[in-house]
Specification:
With 347 residues, the protein is of the alpha+beta class. It has two domains: 199 residues, Fructose-1,6-Bisphosphatase, Chain A, domain 1, CATH 3.30.540.10; 125 residues, D-Maltodextrin-Binding Protein, domain 2. It is 26% helix and 22% strand. The protein has seven helices and 15 strands. An eight-stranded mixed beta sheet has the order 4-3-5-6-7-8-9-10, with helices on both faces. Strands 12-11-13-15-14 form a five-stranded mixed beta sheet, sandwiched between helices. Strands 1-2 form a two-stranded antiparallel sheet. Helix 2 packs antiparallel against helix 3. The longest helix has 27 residues. 44% of the residues are buried. The mean pLDDT is 92. Bound molecules: 2,5-anhydro-1,6-di-O-phosphono-D-glucitol (AHG) and manganese (II) ion (MN) (2 copies). The site of one manganese (II) ion (MN) has 6 residues, from strand 5.
Length: 347
């Protein structure tokens, strides 16, 4: 008697993944040659980082570098190494003339690559780096913006709202390495096949459920939040018939928590903290964490807010500006805005 196939057991086998990232990029109208090169360079950097993360423990490459970055955060060896992977990947020619990184105090301008229509790449090379030494989820976040011809040393053309992004995405280094991005016509996800080194199309036109069952927050900070943020979390943890019954899922990497919201719905929040006097911003950086993931959220039918307004409309004052963030399913983010989670709206 032959073993019944999965189909016979009523389970349909998922089709083998056949579309490679290279072919996908070349079969989309909205993706011109410069963006193809840019996304392929991101994919190349992501493959190198994925490979290194898988072997770092074996090579003794874990732990702190002993330096502190512009944010006053201790830099993990892999933060610095991952940043260098991006610098190398984008300094060998191509349409990107400016690199803006969480790990670089100032932008790096690649003058030789500065032509009439070059790009800026904004990125967080390693997100969730406190997970590095405990084999936890890690990510990379990136966004692409056009640079205005003749920008010279000015950053005015880059310090613009997130609606100016022409592409945004992230890599998630989990049991599998995934690359998820948008160029403005929906969200596509690719999974790295370690056997071939190819990113294979896993899902496209991903839509985020309008409501989820999980919320992601570092609840230990609750005493520092605005009362509205506490009211929001009280709603999630309250009785099911009053909009509650949620589970808390928080992995310490924005990318990992966001990916769960993208696929299953739910919300990630990192509220601002009421410091003495003026309310202080949250922890996450607008230009290379919140704005890229907010573009993905909106492209998938979700939302990204700073608690009193659309994150993609915030004009940054500097490249490392921090903002509070409430991002994920449309219903939960709308509830956050309604509960004035960041205090009375300023408008
Ligand atoms: P990064 O490692 O790039 O600095 O990002 C860490 C961020 C974000 O990924 C995560 O959601 C958050 O910091 C965790 O902050 P707490 O440890 O304060 O919860
Ligand atoms: Mn980060
Ligand atoms: Mn980082």
């Amino acid at each position: 008697m032959t073993e019944p196939t999965l189909e016979a057991k009523g389970k349909t086998m998922t089709k083998p993944l056949m579309m490679t990232l290279d072919r996908y990029l070349r079969t989309r109208e909205r993706i011109g040659p410069e963006l193809i090169v840019t996304i392929e360079s991101v994919a190349h950097a992501v493959k190198r980082i994925s490979n290194e993360l898988a072997r770092a423990a074996l090579k003794g490459e874990l732990g702190y570098s002993g330096t502190v970055n512009v944010h006053g955060e201790e830099v993990e060896k892999l933060d610095a190494w991952s940043d260098k992977v991006f610098v190398d990947a984008f300094s060998a020619g191509g349409p990107v003339c400016t690199l803006i990184s969480e790990e670089m105090d100032e932008p790096r301008h690649l003058k030789a690559q500065c032509t009439r229509d070059s790009f800026a790449l904004l990125y967080d090379p390693l997100d969730g780096s406190s997970n590095t030494d405990v084999n936890g989820a890690l990510g990379t976040v990136f966004a692409v913006r056009r640079r205005k011809p003749g920008h010279g040393d000015s950053l005015a053309d880059v310090l613009a709202a997130g609606t100016e992004q022409i592409a945004a995405g992230y890599a998630l280094y989990g049991p599998a390495t995934m690359l998820v991005f948008t160029v403005g016509d929906g969200v596509s996800a690719f999974v790295l096949d370690p056997a071939t080194g190819k990113f294979m199309l896993w899902r496209e036109k991903i839509t985020m459920p309008p409501r989820g069952k999980t919320y992601a927050v570092n609840q230990a900070n609750a005493a520092k939040w605005h009362p509205g943020a506490r009211a929001l979390v009280d709603r999630f943890t309250g009785p099911k018939d009053q909009g509650g019954g949620y589970s808390l899922r928080y992995c310490g990497a924005f990318v990992g928590d966001f990916h769960r919201c993208l696929l299953n719905g739910g919300i990630f929040l990192y509220p601002g903290e009421i410091s003495s006097g003026r309310g202080s911003a949250g922890k996450l950086r607008l230009m290379y964490e919140v704005a890229p993931l907010s573009m993905l959220a909106e492209q998938a039918g979700g939302a990204g807010s700073i608690g009193h307004g659309r994150a993609l409309e915030v004009v940054p004052g500097n490249i490392h500006e921090r903002v509070p963030v409430y991002i994920g399913s449309a219903e939960e983010v709308a509830l956050a805005d309604k509960l004035e989670v960041e205090g009375r709206s300023r408008s």
